[in-house]
Amino acid sequence: MSLFWDVTALDSRLGHPEQFDPEGFLRQPCEWTPEMAEAIAACIPSIGVTHKSTNEPNKSASLSADHLVVLNAARDFYQRFQRMPTTRVFVKFLSQEAPHVGNSIALMQLFPDTPMRWVAICAGLPKPPNCF
Predict the structure, then answer these.
(1) Cα distance between residue 43 and residue 102, in whole Å
(2) What Å distances lie between residue 92 and 61, 74, 126, CA to CA?
(3) Distance (Å, whole) CA 71 – CA 118
(4) What is the C-alpha to C-alpha distance for residues 63 and 18, in angstroms, rounded to an integer?
(5) Confidence class for position 57, pLDDT limits 50, 70, 90
(6) Separation CA 111–CA 48 (nearest Å)
């Protein structure tokens, strides 16, 4: 199990614990899929992936469209610049790419506590430089 989420809880059809480092980051970003993001998010209670009709945590529930916008923006940033941004740089990037989620408050609501850590983990990207 990683320090931040239980990689062993991930659906084995979507990923295996050996694909992740000890902190739960995907070792090879090219192995990421949107389905993997859904499965990872379902293993992280603080992200709040819930079943829409009951508001209960549910592994079959899906990420919101805003979650996916943020994850895709992170992958786009990584592809363009070959590095993970700091939170401040990413918020600025988001404000240009997706203004409705391009602010710190929106990012914290979607990915509470340590937003860039959760964004990187769910997007299958390396650990951000400001994550300790």
Answers:
(1) 25
(2) 29, 12, 20
(3) 10
(4) 24
(5) very low
(6) 8
Cβ neighbours, 10 Å, residue 119: 27
Residue whose tokens read 């937003």: 115
The helix or strand, by DSSP H or E, that contains position 83, with its residue range, turns out to be: none
61 touches 50 (CB < 8 A): yes
- pLDDT tens digits, residue range 65-83? 999 999 999 999 999 999 9
Cα separation, 125 vs 82, whole angstroms: 10
Q: What is the pLDDT, as a whole number, of residue 119?
A: 97
Mean pLDDT, residues 107-128: 95
Distance CA 85, CA 61 (A): 28
pLDDT attached to residue 54: 43
Token pair of 62 as six digits: 């899906």
